[in-house]
Amino acid sequence: MNHGEIAVFSTIMEIIAMATKQSKAVTVELSESAAIALTVSVASAVANESKARAETMEVCKVAIPKLHSAGVVIGRLSKKEDKTCKYAQAFYDAMLSAGLAVKTVNNYLTTFRDAVRTGVIPKDWNKARKGKRARQEKQFSAMLKTLADFDEGKPFGEFFVWLELAFEDAQYDSLLAGAMDYLAMEGEAKGD
């Protein structure tokens, strides 16, 4: 055999090997009516999920701000009954009775606890599935409040007085430029 014939033979052998290799894919034959029924079942499930998310948001828009403004604190669960928070226990029991797994319920309880503490309605109830970054998400207003509360608000107020004076003295073209320069002066600029 010459070089060209060997190449052709090799290619034929590869094709035969692929044709005889068992595939892990399973081919399912469906009638048209069965395929339509499956399509409708997926559409129904997606619609139910969409309705459930909307209902969840409506309930949370009312309940979470009320709990927050009433000063309710969602505490921790404890093996000792006298140390368990009754609100946390009620939430936990309701979720378990709905058939959710313990780990999932614990994740949801953490999200609920944070929501009531901050008054911010969660966009995602299972932050743990997205990893550490998602769990650290905060609304900008919550971060701003934390800054305003730091050291009784003195540094916050001083910063804004400094920013206002610098802007009025035309040291900066915008308040944003002044704020970014302040961060750079304090060694907190992006990339530092």
Question: Could you describe the 3D structure shown?
Answer:
This protein is mainly α. It folds into 2 domains: about 40-135, no CATH class; about 140-190, no CATH class. It has 8 helices and no strands. Helix 2 packs across helix 4 (about 100-120), helix 3 crosses helix 4 (about 100-120) and helix 7 (about 155-170) packs across helix 8 (about 175-185). The longest helix is centred in the first third of the chain and has 38 residues, at about 30-70. It is extended. The N and C termini lie far apart (about 65 Å). The model has no long low-confidence stretch (mean pLDDT about 80).
Query: What share of residues are in beta strands?
Result: under 5%
Helical run tally: 8
Query: Which percent bin holds the helix content?
Result: 55-70%
N- and C-termini, Cα separation:
67 Å
Largest sheet: none
Q: What is the gyration radius calculated from CA atoms?
A: 30 Å
Number of structural domains = 2
Compact summary:
The chain has 192 residues and is mainly α.
List keywords for this structure.
about 190 residues, mainly alpha, 2 domains, 8 helices, extended
Set out the fold topology.
Elements: H1 3-20, H2 32-69, H3 86-97, H4 102-118, H5 132-135, H6 140-149, H7 154-168, H8 175-185
Helix pairs in contact: 2-4, 3-4, 7-8
